[in-house]
Amino acid sequence: MKFLFLLIVGFILFLISKNYKTEKFANINLKMKEKFDGDLMQHEAGLLVALMAKVAKADGQVSELEAQLIKHTLGDISRHFQNEEEIKEKLKEIYNKEKSSFDNTIEVCKNLYNLTSNNYEKRVKIMEYLLNLAFIDGDFSNTELMITEDISNALKIKRVDFEKLVSAFEMFYKQQKESESLSLDKAYEVLGASQNDDDATLKKKYRSLVKRHHPDIIAGQGASQNIIDEATKKLQEINQAYEQVKKSRGI
Can you give the pTM of this predicted structure? Predict the structure, then answer.
């Protein structure tokens, strides 16, 4: 999914920085940079950033993961322009302004649609990016669903395509949570502990395992190098399991 995400972002940013409509892919020069001095709210880049701001703030706050993604995206978009630093500052201004209001969301979408009306695939990729932004913190709220639905409708994305995108992200994050849950169960298993154990009991079991498998102690008992190496690996596994359980408990 990480690769898919990078592919999506790269594809979107490439399409935004270029305005190819009929040229073949083989003729595209990725090293070309656009010089733009106009109003970025009349450019696909500025309109995308405006929608990013609204999706990120849809549930009332911008999470750390959302903020990191937005920061990197603004930088990536800016690098496709000759006047990179100037564009980056203007995009930041757009983001800060647009995240404070949702009143013009449909207007922004209509302007973006007018610039991409003959490229449905581009609009779907933009929608995919915005959904990734909404899902990235692992919580797709009702308000995020409503605003992405509004954006999808205004960009004239087919309902079936929008639902496929949402389902794909829901499935991915569901599997991710299940994987994390299985990993936590494994961590308790490594520690010979139970989720019902209190913190003191957990710590006692952890320390007992450390003493039993510590390579220095085993080496002092005259063990062979192979056994010492195995003990070192086991101790690493124990330490990782303990850190994972502590993190899950907030200790």
Answer: 0.64
